[in-house]
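Whiteboard transcription, Tuesday session. T.W. wrote the C-alpha cells on the left side:
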C-alpha cells in the first residue's frame, strides 16, 4: 500500500534522459515513492540536444508544464512552442516528440498517469523527427 512520501527536488534521484539529451529528476513514481497512479518528474533538457524519438503512450496521459526555457512539442507532425508557465496535454495514443527549442536549458515538469512502461517508439516517423533509436 502506498505511503505518504516527501522529497526535496535537490535531493531526488536523477537519471539520464534517452540519448544523453539531459537529466530526469524523479520526484514521484512507483520505484521512488511506491505510488500506483502517477509519475511526476522534472526534465532538464540541454541546449541543442534535439527532440526525443517520436512515440506514443497506449494508456498514459502525458502533461508538460514548462518552468524555464523554450520547449517544442510535435504532435502528429505539427510543431507547438511553449514557454514558461505554459502547459501541454497529450492524450493516450497520440504520436509526439519533444525537445528544447531555446538557447538555455529547458526545465519541464512531466506527468504520466497512469505510470509505468508505456513508451512506444514510432519506427517510421513522418513528422520530421527521428523515430528510431532513443
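and on the right, the sequence the group agreed on:
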Amino acid at each position: 500500500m502506498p505511503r505518504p512520501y516527501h522529497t526535496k527536488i535537490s535531493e531526488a534521484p536523477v537519471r539520464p534522459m534517452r540519448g544523453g539529451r539531459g537529466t530526469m529528476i524523479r520526484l514521484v513514481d512507483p520505484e521512488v515513492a511506491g505510488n500506483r497512479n502517477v509519475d511526476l518528474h522534472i526534465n532538464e533538457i540541454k541546449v541543442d540536444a534535439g527532440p526525443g524519438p517520436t512515440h506514443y503512450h497506449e494508456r498514459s496521459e502525458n502533461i508538460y508544464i514548462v518552468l524555464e526555457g523554450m520547449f517544442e512539442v510535435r504532435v502528429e507532425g505539427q510543431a507547438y512552442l511553449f514557454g514558461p508557465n505554459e502547459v501541454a496535454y497529450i492524450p493516450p495514443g497520440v504520436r509526439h516528440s519533444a525537445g528544447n527549442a531555446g538557447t538555455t536549458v529547458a526545465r519541464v515538469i512531466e506527468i504520466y498517469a497512469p505510470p509505468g512502461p508505456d513508451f512506444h517508439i514510432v519506427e517510421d516517423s513522418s513528422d520530421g523527427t527521428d523515430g528510431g533509436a532513443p
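Someone added at the bottom: The radius of gyration is 14 Å.
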